[in-house]
């Protein structure tokens, strides 16, 4: 049971990657959470196909990355609208995208959720919401007579682009309409003459055929100025006919495992929070799936929100902390919608776009251009508006090597518990003295940096700080090159802002 008189502290609607990651983050921080999912079981549909650097780092921060590396395959290159991008091994311990199907991501996250004690209730579709001053009541259709009702302190809609939670909460979803239709399916292609096809452009559109498993290909066709009815089911025959129109042949396509459709509609929730209802993942933003950013953005939404929501539920921090979720994540979503619109425009067929792609591709050989686009897709350069002018503040922390009394460790193992970490890299007692009223909520760690400088995309190399306050999501709330009275005061302000007031006595 959650808070007095409720069934849970938080109800999470949707058991996709975002919902499961959020549930795990909430449980790590001590919240009681129940996930409700309309489907009776996981679909097994492959869907999204990769995890970018920042999401790999997030999984590493929680100590579960090895589970994903064991099932995925690192890819040394990425792309921006089919134009190749290079990655920089100095920027992250995990510089390359990991090719792994969404079905595997969901299975691994569900296993972790169950280990942490998350309750998952399937065949339970949200059908109504009622908020009052202290709780939110969720009506569920469960297949039985009369359905069911659950009460919690908060509800988070992680229920996809057509989010019922978003609609019931009355949150607007403005954006741009679709201008094209893409079909995607996992099939056998016995007559494909190549190992794979990567964004082959033709007058009618483009197609790709990528081998995810031996003998099986993910086929994607894109046809422009053809917009399918949203509610019309995608079929194998439609995929076959589309491939014939675009490629001139179906390459003997057979044995479909899964077929779906997507387009370039781009929409974003006007508010990520309305009262006791919040949104994350596709419920908060949809876009053309160029560059594989959607799943990654959803998981990062969850990691931004989880610790904040758990802190508020537990009374460790004031409710105003939740406002920072929209303030930090809405601009990130806005930027992804912007770059996916650009990628969709670069993908259109025709001589004018061909020329534009050629010019754009010639610019991408320059390191600065490649770096900007790489950071955009990987989210390594995201900076939250936390205040302060130290180059690390607001940015994700690098997994630097540290020397402690117990031996050498990285920064990320210190975050496995999902708690904030105050890292003192110079000693002397000033940091500990400033943080005295927060040691019940913040882990103080004394160490030495093994490296004189740390990489901070897009700034470059930055001298290792004297001390830094790391939020549970791995972003730096405060940093200092020396800890005098002014920086100590700034530290106390940051501790209060993010983790509540100092304890008394």
UniProtKB/TrEMBL annotation:
Which cofactors go with this protein? FAD
What GO MF annotations does this protein's record show?
monooxygenase activity
Family annotation (InterPro entries) = FAD-bd, FAD/NAD-bd_sf, RIFMO-like
- Residue intervals of the FAD-binding domain: 7-339
Going by the UniProt record, its keywords in alphabetical order are:
FAD, Flavoprotein, Monooxygenase, Oxidoreductase
- Transmembrane residues, as ranges? none
Top-level taxonomic group: Bacteria
Entry's PANTHER family? Answer: BINDING MONOOXYGENASE, PUTATIVE (JCVI)-RELATED, TRK SYSTEM POTASSIUM UPTAKE PROTEIN
Could you tell me what this protein is called? FAD-dependent monooxygenase
Q: Which organism is it from?
A: Streptomyces polychromogenes
